[in-house]
Amino acid sequence: MHETAFILIELGAILLGLAVLARLAGMVGLSPIPLYLLAGLAIGEGGILPVVTAEGFIEIGASI
Question: In the chain, how many domains are there?
Answer without folding.
Answer: 1
